[in-house]
Specification:
With about 300 residues, the protein is an alpha/beta fold. It has nine helices and ten strands. Helix 2 runs antiparallel to helix 5. The chain is globular.
Length: about 300
């Protein structure tokens, strides 16, 4: 009996500025194997900063360009409002993020994107999950083409709207926030998509899952565990997203075993908007690529 052709999936975690780790790792893959990322995968799924990178990949933008985007633009994206009142305004203005995305990514309607793409978000008014899909959704009659007129930039903005960091994004009468609230690591939803929409068997599916750093020093024991004094306010958002990423990775590993390759560096606690660790994250990505290069090459083979 012949082995089935592998169905390759790339999943990209959320993580704010730590997305430079993901972009650098993918840039190393493109340089080493002389292939654009979108030609290596049958489905790409991204959340938040991972959605930016996924959108660039399906738009055939070199990953090195996205590394440079993180280096040059994140100080502008994560520049605090001088007049901000924390209880009433988001930490950063969404308008600046929108301007930078417009300068670097095309406003392609999702139904004109040929590469299968999933971008996660959260419908906060109805407490529902929301997934943007490119035109492959027509393969399944149960998936309504509700987002076909939504452009790539707006889908990414919705996925990036982390609570307290950015304001929610209104898209087609839906109030949307960060997909990291339920799928910071979109491995499990991409796996479900491969099984249901693409009708693949688990033996055919290979997932390369790239994180943005696993914080191993988020909390220490202390006396007070109030929202601000113990849980740290915005830190709690990072903690929930990190926990979901780990849970999704664990499920992927259990279901796919050796066909699930997770690459994610252990880091100290670096917030979603940290600007001081960009160079360190690039070095970690280069190290992790070198360590996993042979495995990645074998993983991407089509036989």
């Amino acid at each position: 009996m012949n082995n089935p052709d592998p169905f390759h999936i790339l999943t990209l975690d959320g993580g704010g500025t730590r997305g430079i780790y993901t972009a650098q790792l993918l840039a190393e893959i493109e340089q080493a194997f002389q292939r654009r990322i979108k030609t290596c995968f049958d489905l790409i799924a991204g959340t938040s900063t991972g959605a930016i990178i996924a959108g660039a990949a399906v738009s055939d933008i070199p990953m090195q360009d996205i590394v440079e985007l993180f280096e040059t633009e994140t100080p502008h994206i994560f520049r605090r409002r001088w007049y901000r009142i924390p209880l009433f305004l988001s930490k950063y203005p969404s308008e600046k993020l929108a301007q930078i995305l417009a300068a670097h990514l095309p406003a392609t309607p999702l139904d004109e994107i040929a590469t299968p793409l999933m971008i996660t978000s959260s419908e906060i008014a109805k407490s529902e999950v929301h997934i943007f899909r490119s035109n492959y959704e027509s393969r399944d009659s149960e998936i309504a083409l509700t987002d076909k007129d939504v452009n790539l930039r707006d889908a990414i903005l919705a996925s990036c709207a982390a609570p307290t960091f950015f304001a929610p994004k209104s898209v087609n009468n839906s109030l949307l926030a960060d997909g990291g609230l339920w799928a910071n690591n979109p491995s499990t939803i991409a796996l479900a998509e491969a099984l249901s929409v693409f009708e693949k068997d688990t033996r055919e599916i290979r997932i390369l899952s790239v994180g943005t750093g696993h914080s191993v020093n988020m909390y220490r024991n202390r006396r007070g565990w109030g929202f601000l004094t113990g849980w740290g306010g915005a830190k709690l958002t990072s903690y929930v997203m990190t926990l979901q990423s780990q849970a999704s990775a664990d499920i992927g590993q259990r279901l796919l075993k050796q066909n699930y390759l997770r690459i994610n560096a252990e880091i100290d606690f670096w917030e979603l908007d940290t600007l001081t660790q960009l160079d360190n994250l690039k070095v970690l990505a280069e190290r992790d690529f070198e360590k996993n290069a042979e495995g990645i090459e074998a993983f991407l083979r089509r036989e």
